[in-house]
Amino acid sequence: MFPLVLAAVSAGVWGTADYVGGRATRRIDAFRVAVLSKLFSVPLLAVYLTLLPVAFPGRSVAWGLAAGGAGMAALITFYRALASGAMAVVAPVSAVTAAVLPFGAGLVAGERPGLWAIVGVLCAVAAIGLVSMAPSTGRATMSLVGLALLSGVGFGLFFVLLDRAAAAAGGDAGLWPIAFSQSGALLVGFFLWERHRRAAGRTPSQRPAGILKLIALSGMLDMTANALYLLAVRDGMLSIVAPLASLYPVSTVLLALALDRERVRPVQVAGLGLAVAALVLVAS
Fold this sequence. Notes:
Blueprint: H1 2-24, H2 30-40, H3 42-51, H4 61-82, H5 87-108, H6 115-132, H7 142-168, H8 176-200, H9 209-235, H10 238-245, H11 248-259, H12 266-283
């Protein structure tokens, strides 16, 4: 039961991080937001590692680096797809793919959740797709759908690879896999950012202090959600924990409703109801 609670909380924290980071990307480009948010989260990660000290798990380094690299590449790909304005297609395709991939990976690995848990996961997948839908101002093309799928695969791989990082340690790895993941994310992020900067032919612009605060908050929330997910998947089944953690669009939508006065569409209300049903079924 406790892993399910951690997974649900991680989804809420991830969604909050996405909301805060999304506000920052309205004023500076997504590459800088993605990379700087990871940098700002490093001091908090050091605190977490100190509070949960364990022996250095060398066997999980490669898995953690791969998880972070996949997650960062997915995030930047997702932002590129969203830049088209076709959010009604991009967001649901990406989010649902991110939930389905680890669910399948868990089943292939031999996990056998109960019937009601499986029904709950299916409700969660449907809820993610419905909640993520938003009015679209752009035209969806096959290339955009491809980018959305690619980002979803990257997010799904992050869930799977972080699970493997915890398992590779052969016991309690603490939060070291998150440290490795953050390192992988920064390596890939700096590489992609530099490529983007050179292709655009621009030098970095000034970053207002208010934006830096948003980026820092987004990074610390994102890293905290990563840690909660790791603790959840360490003691729970990947096929159940990852889809629950993928419910992060729910908190993003609720924050937009409460703080930005955005209107929730009927399809999103249905998604919120399915999300509640998913939590109840999985916990039953």
